[in-house]
Design a protein that fits this description.
By secondary structure, the chain is α/β, with parallel strands linked by helices. The chain contains ten helices and ten strands. Strands 6-2-1-7-8-10-9 form a seven-stranded mixed beta sheet. It has a three-stranded antiparallel beta sheet with strand order 3-5-4.
């Protein structure tokens, strides 16, 4: 494995932080070198400096996609932090429906990874509305910076082991078995989610309308506090009054630094 110098690590870390908000502490130097070693070998780079020059010069964007995929884990699963989904179903959806004048729900799954989170939301919404769903616009925007995970999400194919935690009724209603190992979500649920490649560091956010609910869970663990709070401010500005922000249970917001009101662990609301 090629060794990475302090200068080379700082060069890559600063680039990642500036462009994608991901903060790599100094102790991540060995981890970064290990995760990128196969990439350097495959592309016959003799040093991390050569690799950095390739990333900066690459006009296709393929190089930086691979870099970000290596830096982040994209670890997710269906029904992760299930209490969030229960609160969304039992409290948030009834409130939003009661207050809606336009039968329009705008939900954003930011950092959606391989699609388990937005598809879970789509199934909850379908079950909640039942026959009334056709009267509502309930499509979910799901974004990530990784093309790799977005391709997986778009297919909607998951191992039967990965969907084992879902309610039995959901597995029968919303999935079709491909074989003994895999199942695919039905088109009606896949079509409820709009996937887009998007960098959360883009400023300003390019959305014309505000969201009623934003899920951004286990994403800001990669950011330092300044970057995190700048992003939370953008989320706040993009949230409808009375709307909600869900973050990961391993994350927290300083209540003195945000205008969101704390509702539950990792659940915040923008007051009317």
């Amino acid at each position: 494995m090629l060794k990475i110098s302090e200068r080379e690590f700082r060069q890559l870390a600063d680039y990642i932080k500036t462009n994608y908000g991901i903060f790599l502490k100094d102790e991540k130097q060995t981890l970064l070198a290990g995760r990128l070693s196969n990439v350097l070998t495959e592309k016959s780079f003799s040093s991390f400096a050569d690799y950095f020059n390739y990333i900066v010069a690459d006009k296709t964007g393929d190089g930086v996609v691979t870099l970000i995929d290596k830096v982040t884990t994209n670890h997710t699963f269906f029904m992760r932090e299930v209490d969030h989904f229960n609160f969304f179903k039992e409290k948030v959806l009834p409130q939003l429906v009661a207050n809606s004048q336009t039968k329009d729900l705008r939900i954003w799954s930011a950092g959606c990874s391989s699609g388990e989170e937005p598809y879970t939301l789509a199934m909850i919404i379908d079950e909640f509305f039942g026959m009334e769903k056709k009267l509502w616009d309930t499509k979910i925007l799901a974004t990530d910076i990784s093309s790799k995970v977005l391709d997986i999400a778009l297919e909607g194919v998951y191992s039967n082991e990965r969907i084992a935690t879902l309610p039995a009724f959901w597995k029968l209603k919303y999935f079709n078995k491909l074989d003994y190992e895999k199942s695919v979500l039905i088109p009606e649920i896949r079509n409820e989610v709009i996937y887009r490649k998007f960098n959360l560091m883009d400023n300003p956010l390019p959305f014309k309308k505000k969201f009623h609910v934003i899920f951004c869970r286990n994403v800001m663990i990669y950011f330092d506090n300044k970057t995190k709070m700048e992003l939370v401010k953008k989320f706040y500005d993009a949230t409808e009054p009375g709307g909600y922000l869900f973050i990961g249970h391993s994350e927290s917001l300083n209540r003195n630094e945000t205008e969101y009101q704390h509702i539950l662990p990792a659940v915040y609301r923008k007051e009317f």
